[in-house]
Amino acid sequence: MPIFQNNAKQKYTYTDYLTWPEGERWEIIDGVPYMQAAPSWQHQAISGDIFSQFYEYLKDKPCRVFAAPFDLCISEENESDEEISNLISQPDIVVVCDESKLRKTGYFGVPSLIVEISSPSTARKDKILKFNKFEMAGVEEYWIVEPENKLVNVFLLQDNKRYGRPDIYSDEDEIKVNTFPDLILDLKTVFANL
């Protein structure tokens, strides 16, 4: 297990990340490492259903969907892959449409759509830290799923390059996916049996 000491190293990078044990899930935000807890069965059920709906839709299309563990690396200007410390994340679901940015352990660039399934232990990261990073990077569509409330908050990047107020959907709704206007995601199956 990596040992992190205060002030011993200011920023951790993708190079550091690659040396950490494979059985552990870590993220780096602004050079700070965060260990991820094992997801609950409810989290996994929601993730699996959303993933399968995207997967079925994207068959034979140029975009692809990936589920965690899958690295998303978003660099700051002039950072090489090895130097990335801005954001190394493992979103629950990532949709990418530029296969040239798939390399090493994941995707190095800005994806088209990200879904995070939030929990009390990840809410701060999902709703503040990652939200701000995804917004600044230009992720067009960001979903935050709240299993306890059976809600999905969909944030869309506006002309001013900021996320507007979210569209909020409940377990009785369908979501018309902005990135793929002919895709309707059914939330009845996503939240079924929870």
UniProtKB/TrEMBL annotation:
InterPro entries: Nuclease_put_TT1808, Restrct_endonuc-II-like, Uma2. Residues 16-187 form the Putative restriction endonuclease domain. Gene3D superfamilies: tt1808, chain A (3.90.1570.10). It holds the Pfam family Uma2. This is Putative restriction endonuclease domain-containing protein. It comes from Desulfosporosinus metallidurans. The lineage of its organism: Bacteria, Bacillati, Bacillota, Clostridia, Eubacteriales.
